[in-house]
Amino acid sequence: MDTVNVELFGQDQKVLKALSVARNVSVTKAPVLIVGEAGVGKRSLGRYIHQNSTRANKPLCIVDCAESSVEVERQILGHRDEESGRFNRGILEQANGGTVIFANIDGVDEEFQKKLHKIINELPDYDIDVRIISTTTRNLSKLVGAGRFYRGLYMQVSSNSITLTPLRERPNDLQMLVKHFIHEFDTEERHIDVDQTAMDKMLMHYWTYNVEELRNVIESSLEELEGSMLTEECLTIGEKKTVNVIQDDESDGIRLMSLKDAEKLLIKKALVHTSENRTQAAKILGVSIRTLRNKINEYRNTGSAYFMNLR
């Protein structure tokens, strides 16, 4: 397992506090819930906790709960191979003595949430000892209040909570990371510098996918760069090369739909990504908060389940 590079988390006081909490909690067996936007480093922090624990030499298994409900259950509970007939153990059993990371735990199917809660409770009966770390981009407490996440499972995974601050709120870290990634991708040893116009553009960008998006932008920009100065014109922000940081599960199967349905889907995705923070969602969408509010009310009046449950 690659050692987590703590430097990539940054030096912002909120980040340093999160790392301090992670170090302190790593020596315990207590569950940890890591909260933050996409691409901010939640899984890396989970690995960091594992690597600083007494379980560091034991397995670390990760299941992405944003995958299909069938696949998530197969990974957690295990499944029998159709061709060989051999039973493949689930990750809870595979990670016995180590750590399991439930990435995007808010994506667990509502029916399976209660079952997962029961399974975790019964692990000691089967001599299975795992440390549970979960990640989410959502406000799970709010989802519990709305009846969209099982309270028992929430209490089970959230006894210790760590929040990672978005990159756009850490300008000093952003500048440090720009230099780090330039050094990482500058294979020709050109000693590349960044002019102020390029840095200003990066400081003004929203960075929806945080560190992952920044890394991708720097890499693709350097591929096209001629010379040793990264200017505003060289940056690939907003171009197709930055799109691959979006996970496949975010695409909703790219299908033809009406403009009205596409608008509703885009607004829903912006709200989900920002943990239903309407101000941030409006910024991403490039509309006023009033326009967004009117759209939400419109979708509520048409009976759209997601928007009816919004607070």
Summarize the structure.
Helix content is 46%, strand content 11%. The protein is α/β, with parallel strands linked by helices and 311 residues long.
Word description of this protein:
The protein is α/β, with parallel strands linked by helices and 311 residues long. It folds into three domains: 158 residues, Rossmann fold, CATH 3.40.50; 79 residues, Orthogonal Bundle (Helicase, Ruva Protein, domain 3); 57 residues, Arc Repressor Mutant, subunit A. It has 14 helices and nine strands. It has a five-stranded parallel sheet with strand order 2-5-6-1-7, sandwiched between helices. It is globular.
Q: Roughly what fraction of the amino acids lie in strands? A: 5-15%
What about the largest sheet?
5 strands, parallel
The CATH architecture term of the largest domain is 3-Layer(aba) Sandwich
Question: What gap, in angstroms, lies between the N and C termini?
Answer: 42 Å
Reported by name, the CATH topology of the largest domain is Rossmann fold
